[in-house]
Known about the structure:
Strand content: under 5%
Structural class: mainly alpha
CATH class: Mainly Alpha
Oligomer: single chain
Shape: flat
CATH superfamily: Tetracycline Repressor, domain 2
CATH topology: Tetracycline Repressor, domain 2
Order of helices and strands: HHH
Helix content: over 70%
Number of helices: 3
Distance between the termini: 36 Å
CATH architecture: Orthogonal Bundle
Number of domains: 1
Largest sheet: none
Amino acid sequence: MNPRLSQLIGHVFDNWIELLAEVLRQARDSGELMVSVPPEVFAKHIVATIEGGVMMSRLSKNGDDLRDCLNSIRAILGIEPK
């Protein structure tokens, strides 16, 4: 992969994880989220699960894989699956 493109994509992921970690931190601090994993680690897990679901859905040409991954995140967060 082109080093410049790789760096840009890395920044996108870093920003996504940073923003998500902040939301998770706020939810934890307000008592809305009861997860023992540090927010930064949980944010990486969420991003990795979403990206894995995207890749699996593209390979299978079926949206069920992504939907299952999103529903697992919702379940962990205590949000009703769609």
